[in-house]
Amino acid sequence: MNPLIHELFQRSRFLTQEANHTLKKFNLFTSQWSVLYCIQRHKEMTLTQIWKYLNVEAPTITRTVNRLAELGWIEICSGKDKREKIVKLSEHALQQYPAIKTAMMEFEDQMVAGLSKEEEVQLFELLKKIR
Amino acid sequence: MNPLIHELFQRSRFLTQEANHTLKKFNLFTSQWSVLYCIQRHKEMTLTQIWKYLNVEAPTITRTVNRLAELGWIEICSGKDKREKIVKLSEHALQQYPAIKTAMMEFEDQMVAGLSKEEEVQLFELLKKIR
DNA sequence: AAGATATACTTAGCTAGCTAAATAAAATCC
DNA sequence: GGATTTTATTTAGCTAGCTAAGTATATCTT
After folding, report:
1. How far is the CA of B54 from the C1' of D7 (A)?
2. CATH number, domain at B46?
3. Where is B87: in which H helix or E strand?
4. ipTM, 2 decimals?
5. Across the 131 residues of chain A, what is the mean pLDDT of every consecutive 10-residue run?
6. Domain-located, residue B100
7. Is A16 within a domain?
8. C-beta pairs of B75-79 under 8 Å, 24+ apart in sequence
9. Is there contact between B62 and strand C, defined as CB under 7 Å from any strand atom?
């Protein structure tokens, strides 16, 4: 395998794993956090908005959202359009949110601590050239 | 989420997905190909050698190797040490190998076609700084 | 207004990563 | 040489991505 692509997969696995460790004390997984994060930013979202925003397929979000509801992190209601489901953070999630966000920002800063600000920008631009 | 980390996850998902499409005509998935690839390079390997080489956990390799054996891509034999399993490519795999390798090299070249040789090296070095 | 098409979400089933704990063989230590 | 520890692999069970196909509601077309 192309060493560049191989390295990218390695880094991706490493980061999800480390993020999972960070989130463990909140009883959350990385992808669950991604969903909570984007709901918080938009206050409320439909499932379609979520999966388009995160750039994954719909069934992935159906499953994660249901799990988050089971665990009490989010509430699901239905809007005027009976097909769609509107999702928002629960009271519990709103309370916990700042602490989790802080922990995750620290974690992310730590992960990219080896790069200067210019290198971060450079890496970001180079990644976008893969397609 | 840090936009850099987010972008890295996006690229990683995109690449596995595209690689899966490329491999579809050989009835293989990306991770299965990774295993075949490294077995071919080493002629034969134990499971432990494989998961250490690919930097994943042992159960992941147990499952993928068993699936590859079921599908007739590899043969599993046992060595002097009765704990370990030694794995090598089947006749079928050896025959197909060059065609798959060619297809995958074309695919990989295409994926990084947007980058100059210097940018490839740069990207590789920057990725390694994430830890 | 009825039929056709599009959209939102779900279900089923696959690969693929992980952790924790179990099993069996090998190696090490009195 | 017998008990202990280490090593190789497996099993069970979780998250998380995907595709393909199904259901229900909205919208569009004529």
Report:
1. 19
2. 1.10.10.10
3. strand B85-89
4. 0.93
5. 93 97 97 98 98 98 98 96 97 98 97 96 96 89
6. yes
7. no
8. B79/B46
9. no
